[in-house]
Amino acid sequence: MSPRVVFPNKILPYLLVAPQLAITIVFFYWPASQALRQSMLKEDPFGLRSRFVWFDNFERVLTDPNYLNSVKVTVVFSVSTAFASMALALLLAVMADRVIRAKGFYRTMLIWPYAVAPAIAGMLWLFLFNPSIGSLAIGLRWLGIPWDPLLNGSNAMILVVAAAAWKQISYNFLFFVAGLQAIPKTLIEAAAIDGAGETKRFWTIIFPLLAPTTFFLLVINTTYAFFDTFGIIHAVTGGGPGKATETMVYKVYSDGALNQLLGASAAQSVILMVIVIGLTAVQFRYVERKVHYG
Amino acid sequence: MIGLSRRRGVIAHIVLIIGMLVVAFPIYYTFVASTHSLQTILRPPLPLLPGPEIFNNYYEALFGGIGRIGGVNVWTLLFNTTVMALSIAVGKIIISILSAYAIVFFRFPFRMTFFWLIFITLMLPVEVRIMPTYAVMVNLGLIDTYTGLTLPLMASATATLLFRQFFLTIPGELIEAARIDGAGPWRFFKDILMPLSRTNIAALFVILFIYGWTQYLWPLLMTNRNDMTTIVIGLKKMISFADADTQWHLVMVTAMLAIIPPILVVLFMQRWFVRGLIETEK
Fold first, then answer.
1. What predicted TM-score, i.e. pTM, was given to this entire model?
2. I need a surface site. Which of A72, A110, B105, B185 has the fewest CB within 10 A?
3. pLDDT at A83
């Protein structure tokens, strides 16, 4: 970067960054360092004394079948949510790219679930699909499908995935539309002249050229499914039935806030931090590449 | 345009209409449920069209009897949520615009350290440090206060990065010209930078308003008192799927009240919304 023209003040810049820095240190770094410290402490049952136990908490967490279950739940939940939401959004984006009339109308109608809080999305889906008063649950029963998300673990999982994916369709749709618009029409025309049908054009030209968008969305959707969906799990299933929908973030909350297992909760927090750092690193590598070749 | 036969166009429209219906259905059905009596809701399936109870239900939820949601009326919750969404959006924009301004237009010791300190907060979302953050808030006495609800969410790496990115595109000649004309840092900020940043600010505002409005974990942790919480948490407290006492018709009205404001913001500021979403990329 070339040397920029700047203002010569000495004190002013510190005053300008001070508010953000103060908030960052008090509410981000302090708690994060507490999490690190606490993850290596063990408190006695009355919370009166604590001693340093190195990686005991991590060892205990990583060998706890309940924790491993929550890892599995998180993976199933994130992969299903990301896949369902992105597949539907891609289908709709490709169709929207094809139509000429009413394009803006379709876009408007497809983007508003973004404004619905994840927890409310979950509650609405549970209202539709709960076994006693859910109108759509009755439809399922009428079709002969046994359905009870309040008692059956996999039904509960399907319900939270549906709610989480539904809410994310808007976001993915907008990015896929933008990605599709960036593909040069000449390439598609050339393929058409060579006799490639619509399906073939999609899989051999459009889909590979969309790869950067798809990859970016994959990272974003994974982050979303890991962290932002806490509200859905908390409001709809509370991690149940059994522990069928207890994701890693939900377990940090329930171990810490409900069961007061501070050491275990902190160790899980640290594990999650490592995961976020990984995801962010992947995301920024991608952004950097886009800057170079975009 | 090639290969766009009439039949294909029709198929595209059909797929889009089905997609639209699926996407809109949960919200439409919530609206329908909010216009029926409790008895109708409890005897599913619910009709597909709005019912006759619309005025009764909305009147009862908004004005009938105080303290429906754990001793609190719906206005208090809407007010809290509005305060939270607006202060987070405005606070975040002010704080990050100032720090981005300092980082781009000044040279000072520890500049890059500060930048990285802000950048790394991207990797520390609330969800990964739930309990220690709660402890800090308790120690500072910020539980059940508007400060506690809003201030900690105002620091944002995303917004700072966005403004930094934008400021870097402003040509050096502009600053030089301003300085030759005798403009100091404040003058430059107010008369040149702010007008240039207007569209970015509008786009970011929409995204942040929705971010603040839809918060869940934060108000859940930071509020014990029902009259300090947000409408999303209030709604959660009204619902019990196991218990027959849930006032479903009023729950549905409350759900509508909770989702209408952010939806209106998205619809009316659609241009800024799309722009903000694509630009913040997170």
1. 0.87
2. A72
3. 93
pLDDT of residue A245: 84
Q: Which residue of A has its CA nearest to B12?
A: A95
Query: Last residue of a domain, which of B64, B85, B119?
Result: B64
Rounded Cα distance, A70 and A250, in Å: 9
pLDDT confidence tier of residue A210, bands split at 50, 70 and 90: confident
The interface predicted TM-score of the complex, written ipTM, equals 0.84
Q: Let me know whether B41 and B132 are in one domain.
A: no
- Whether the predicted pLDDT of B61 surpasses 80: no
What CA–CA distances, in Å, run from B46 to B20, B39, B133, B201, B249? 21, 10, 44, 43, 12
Tell me which DSSP letter residue A42 carries: E
Where a domain ends, among B64, B79, B108?
B64
Give the amino acid at A258.
Answer: L
The whole-angstrom separation of Cα A155 and Cα B162 is 41
CA B184 centroid distance within chain: 35
Q: How many angstroms separate the CA atoms of B19 and B25, rounded?
A: 10
Chain A residues in contact with B102 (beta carbon < 8 A):
12-14, 16-17
Task: Find which of A24, A100, A166 to mutate to test the B interface (most B CBs within 10 Å of its CB).
Answer: A24
C-alpha torsion angle, residues B254, B255, B257, B260 (rounded to 10): -170
Q: Is B106 helix (H, G, I), strand (E, B) or coil?
A: strand
Residue B248, chain A, CB below 8 Å: the answer is yes
Cα(B280)–Cα(B258) distance, integer angstroms? 25
Query: Alpha-carbon distance A87 to B186, whole Å?
Result: 49
CA distance A264 to A154: 27
**B152–chain A Cβ distance below 8 A for any pair:** yes
The number of domains in chain B is 2
